[in-house]
């Protein structure tokens, strides 16, 4: 495990997703591990932290999430631009070695039976809150964040530090057709630090 | 209506939210109009386009959405930084002149009984898809996008043009405590233009 990975307090975990990054979703079941990209993931609650993610019925990752009842959400970086695009456009249904093809390396976190992607800036271990109707009707899954971690070089004391961190640690925000934006400059209101 | 406002095709409407901006939610019922900020809004489907938004039970806007069955989602710009913060932190329950206090100006779109916020970069008129269980349990609302428009200076031919548009037209991405980021530089994979 990377020396820069530090735990994030439960009440600050929503901040890892609040700015709307494209994420990677990973899951494991029966010895099979997969990772996909998802632009449609969003914070849902502060404490306990919850989030939503849309998982298409065609994806192998969804099958692993439904069978295991757990998944990890992670925030990929500018350095992982091509990896993020590739895991979102290749399917394990077509190529069992998808992860190797996409250059994905996985690691574990003690106490969590989940595969985490090396090189991201944040990781959220989630358990599925079963809501069969919206899973079936909208492909929408709700997860409760049971633990979270971030790379202390770009998230510390409960805050992203994109303005001072290396540019390749910035988050990615997908639009379409292989075209992303990185997160940009800080914009502080006159109310920074107020509750 | 601003001369730069142009319709967005239904199949491209999801792109207005795909990069995860903080949005403004507006609604009208019984002669009352309100606007709030929401960092927790996300695309849900391509066609017909759908989206999710989290509306806390304490907000006046939620009451208007529940009564009217409709709302607008709009993408505020860097030029609207203070307005976005203020509509997210003041409540009409405390001040009936909230919108005037926050500097919000509204306009109409023919065929839609909704208030739209002047100066945003994109507008999505939505009807509520009633899902009482998730509305009650998670404050989560699903909307179908019935029409969408964008400012052609920053979104044209189905694409955001942040890289060439004026910096004050960039989208805002909220973290916490009055601290936002603007969307940043384009990051193109080797697959731009591929399906």
Name of the CATH architecture of chain A: Roll
Strand content of chain A: 35-45%
Q: Whole-Å distance between the termini of chain A?
A: 34 Å
Low-confidence stretches of chain A: none
Shape of chain A: globular
Largest interface: A-B, 56 and 56 residues
- CATH topology of chain A: the name is Pnp Oxidase, Chain A
Overall average residue pLDDT of chain A: 96
Percentage of residues assigned to helices of chain A: 10-25%
Tell me the quaternary state: homodimer
Structural class of chain A: alpha+beta
Summarize the structure in short:
The structure is a homodimer of 195-residue chains. With 195 residues, the first copy, chain A, is an alpha+beta fold.
Q: Describe it for me?
A:
2 copies of one chain form a homodimer. Chain A has 195 residues and is α+β, with helices and mostly antiparallel strands. Chain A has one domain: Pnp Oxidase, Chain A, CATH 2.30.110. The first copy, chain A, has 4 helices and 14 strands. Chain A has helices spanning 60-68, 81-89, 98-102, 132-138; strands spanning 5-7, 23-29, 32-38, 41-45, 50-54, 70-75, 106-109, 112-117, 122-129, 140-151, 155-156, 159-160, 172-176, 179-188. The termini of chain A are far apart. Chains A and B meet through strand 4, strand 5, helix 2, helix 4 and strand 12 of A and strand 4, strand 5, helix 2, helix 4 and strand 12 of B. Strand 14 (179-188) of chain A pairs antiparallel with strand 14 (179-188) of chain B.
């Amino acid at each position: 495990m990377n020396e820069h990975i530090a735990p994030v307090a439960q009440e600050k975990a929503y901040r890892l997703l609040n700015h709307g990054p494209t994420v990677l979703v990973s899951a494991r079941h029966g010895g099979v591990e997969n990772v996909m990209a998802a632009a449609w993931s969003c914070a849902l609650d502060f404490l306990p932290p919850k989030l939503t993610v849309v998982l298409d019925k065609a994806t192998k990752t969804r099958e692993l999430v439904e069978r295991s009842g757990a998944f990890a959400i992670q925030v990929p970086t500018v350095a992982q631009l091509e990896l993020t695009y590739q895991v979102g456009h290749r399917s394990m249904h077509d190529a069992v070695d998808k992860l190797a093809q996409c250059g994905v390396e996985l690691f574990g976190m003690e106490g969590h039976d989940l595969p985490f992607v090396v090189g991201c800036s944040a990781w959220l271990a989630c358990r599925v809150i079963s809501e069969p109707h919206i899973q079936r009707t909208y492909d929408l899954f709700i997860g409760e964040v049971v633990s979270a971690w971030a790379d202390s070089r770009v998230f510390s004391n409960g805050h992203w530090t994109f303005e001072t961190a290396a540019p390749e640690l910035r988050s990615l925000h997908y639009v379409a057709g292989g075209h992303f934006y990185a997160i940009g400059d800080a914009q502080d209101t006159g109310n920074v630090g107020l509750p």
